[in-house]
Automatic annotation (TrEMBL):
Keyword terms, alphabetized: Membrane, Transmembrane, Transmembrane helix
Ranges annotated as spanning the membrane: 6-24
Protein name from the UniProt record: Peptidase
Family label: Belongs to the band 7/mec-2 family.
Native organism: Paenibacillus graminis
Length: 311
């Protein structure tokens, strides 16, 4: 009997401690109600409550969480049914609002996401839907932000995972894609051939231009060389004439300094003619100036006389 009483006391103590002491992990928070009314929040760490009077209504995880939205079939503006998978990342920022603002905020987020998605896709055609994932995600997030602000939930990100058009549309899109790729390949080949022809023509043009410029440069240099050679030759001839003139001038100067005037030179010339006249020629023509000179000297008769005697 005594042991039973001790056991009951220990049980009561354990229950009392369990109802009084609450340990909350990091990034979690508890909502405490006192007599059925919100009282306070339990912060991470050790918390003490008044048993029976205080009760923990719920705990919230304050980390960013994700909620998968089941695949939804929606109709585009051009009446094509597509199936869209989305995922939503959210965070509880107001534990009190998340507890009392809505009964299940995850369910509410999914429903609002689905309704918003139908509205957005209904305004877009199929091609816009397939290429507008980023816009669709942004529009859904803005709509969720407006609705969840009162729920103490903040939408961090909305991602459209997949957009699946009907099978026949997919086959048509595959054929269109193959046709587009074939078209681009043909266009690229034609463009490459065009570029090849242009580059070859440019290369041929540049080659001809360079060859013409080379021939022109060669002809210019040849003409320049010929001109310089002619100038040098003329310069050489002028210097030679100048040297001969200088030599003649010097010779005349020397003769003049030696006292050899014109009469003496005429006599010497006549003496040379005398030697010539001793040859086979029987006639000698004398310059008039020489005759006058020798006549004044009275020597010409003696010269001819001596010549006849020698014969």
């Amino acid at each position: 009997m005594q042991w039973a009483i001790i056991g009951i006391i220990i049980f009561v103590v354990v229950v009392f401690v369990a109802l009084t002491v609450k340990i909350v992990p990091q990034q979690r928070v508890g909502v405490v109600e006192r007599l059925g009314k919100f009282h306070r929040l339990l912060k991470p760490g050790l918390n003490v409550l008044i048993p029976i009077i205080d009760q923990v209504r719920t705990y919230h995880d304050l980390r960013i969480q994700q909620a998968n939205v089941p695949p939804q079939t929606v109709i585009t503006k051009d009446n094509v049914q597509v199936q869209i998978d989305t995922i939503i990342f959210y965070q509880v920022v107001g534990p009190e609002e998340a507890t009392y603002g809505i009964s299940d905020y995850v369910y509410g987020v999914r429903n609002i996401s689905t309704a918003t998605m139908r509205q957005i896709i209904g305004k877009l055609e199929l091609d816009e839907t397939l290429s507008g994932r980023e816009k669709i995600s942004s529009d859904i997030r803005l709509a969720l932000d407006e609705a969840t602000e009162k729920w103490g939930v903040r939408i961090e990100r909305v991602e459209v995972i997949d957009i699946k058009p009907p099978l026949d549309i997919q086959e048509a899109m595959d054929k269109q894609m193959k046709a587009e790729r074939s078209k681009r390949a043909i266009v690229l080949e034609a463009e490459a051939a065009k570029q090849d022809m242009i580059l070859r023509a440019e290369g041929d043009k540049q080659s001809k231009i360079l060859k013409a410029e080379g021939d022109k440069e060669a002809r210019i240099r040849q003409a320049e060389g010929l001109r310089q050679a002619q100038e040098l030759e003329a310069l050489g001839q002028a210097k030679a004439i100048q040297a001969v003139a200088e030599a003649e001038k010097s010779r005349i100067g020397l003769l003049s300094s030696a006292g050899l005037d014109e009469k003496v030179l005429a006599y010497q010339s006549f003496d040379a003619l005398t030697e010539i006249s001793k040859g086979a020629a029987n006639k000698v023509f004398l310059p008039t100036s020489a005759v006058e000179t020798l006549g004044t000297l009275g020597a010409i008769a003696e010269v001819f006389k001596a010549s006849k005697e020698s014969k």
